[in-house]
Design goal:
Number of helices: 6
CATH topology: Rossmann fold
CATH superfamily: P-loop containing nucleotide triphosphate hydrolases
Order of helices and strands: HEEHEEHEHEHEH
CATH class: Alpha Beta
Distance between the termini: 19 Å
Number of strands: 7
Shape: globular
Radius of gyration: 17 Å
Strand content: 15-25%
Number of domains: 1
Strand order of the largest sheet: 1-3-4-2-5-6-7
Helix content: 25-40%
Length: 228
């Protein structure tokens, strides 16, 4: 994991890969054990906070489990509000992680029933944010492992490719699949992201409910945070 530790400065020398991975996982745990505070919800580009800390954005279809994943990362259930109404959060929600990193929860996409003006407003907000944010280090793109990549995900990937934002696919709800189903969706996803210029090659498999992949995801995010 240390080979792309840009920004975090956590390159550990003289350790075996296993020791390095274990240290990053522990450092990631400690980062998210500290205070995570909700800063603001941004409904328009004029409301974006000043460019300061590195930002990690979370993208995903409505109901992909984005709020649950953010809460699992932070080890508490109240950081991100989970909404039962898909497409309700039409804001970029900003969270400060221990003064070292900002997490940006982007409004979910792929709401078939949303009126066109709402979808256009979403596109303007998200595209404007992605293209104009120099501190955006990576976008974590959440994909429900039960469904794999769908056309709305592919549209988002194209948007990210065009905005030249590095994105990393995170499969959610992997506890709902058996081993062979999971292996199949993982292989299909890897094949597809290989064709995208801005896609990060490492795929992360998670289950917020069971805590699977959460330590690894924290370690990945840690490497993009400001050093202590």
């Amino acid at each position: 994991m240390g080979h792309h530790a840009q920004g975090g400065g956590q390159v550990l020398s003289g350790l075996s890969p296993e020791e390095e991975a274990a240290q990053l996982i522990e450092a990631g745990r400690l980062l998210f054990a500290r205070e995570v505070t909700f800063l603001r919800g941004v409904a328009g580009l004029d409301g974006l906070p000043p460019v300061d800390l590195p930002e990690i954005a979370f993208a995903g279809r409505s109901n992909v489990g984005k709020s649950s994943l953010i809460n699992a990362l932070c080890g508490r259930s109240t950081v991100a509000r989970t909404s039962n109404t898909p497409g309700r959060t039409q804001e970029l929600n900003y969270f400060d992680v221990a003064g070292r990193l900002i997490m940006v929860d982007m409004p979910g996409y792929g709401f078939a029933k949303a009126p066109k003006d709402k979808v256009d407003a979403w596109k303007r907000l998200v595209n404007g944010y992605l293209r104009g944010r120099p501190t955006l280090r990576r976008c974590l793109m959440l994909v429900d492992s039960r469904h794999g990549l769908k056309d709305v995900d592919r549209e988002m990937m194209t948007m990210l490719d065009k905005a030249a934002v590095v994105y990393q696919v995170v499969l959610t709800k992997v506890d709902k699949l058996n081993a062979s189903e999971l292996a199949a969706v993982e292989a299909r996803t890897r094949t597809e992201i290989a064709d995208h210029v801005a896609a990060h090659p490492t795929l992360i498999l998670t289950s917020s409910e069971k805590g699977l992949g959460i330590p690894e995801l924290r370690a990945e995010i840690l490497q993009l945070a400001n050093p202590e």
